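I hope you will forgive my troubling you with a question about protein structure. I am sending you one protein, given as its amino acid sequence and as whole-number tokens for its backbone shapes. Thank you for your consideration; the sequence and its tokens are set out here:
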Amino acid sequence: MASRKYGTLYVGVTSNLPERAWQHREGIIAGFTKKYGVKLLVYYELHATMEAAIVREKQIKEWRRAWKVELIESMNPEWRDLYDDLV
């Protein structure tokens, strides 16, 4: 998730992406995303198991910012909010 194009980035994992993205958009969850206005779903991956998703989340969190930006732009070069695609 991102606050805007090239803005603050957040990497997380969930079993219900539409609901979790909505919670971030609405600012319901106190913490990092609410504090920094991280509301746009700009990239996501689906995984067969929660364990696989957590491994991938930890991997991406260790990446340099430039690599995360490249990953986002490989799927979403315009940094369009993908939330509406889910619902």
Q: What stands out?
A: The first helix runs from residue 17 to 26. The chain has one domain: 17-86. DSSP finds five helices and no strands in the chain.
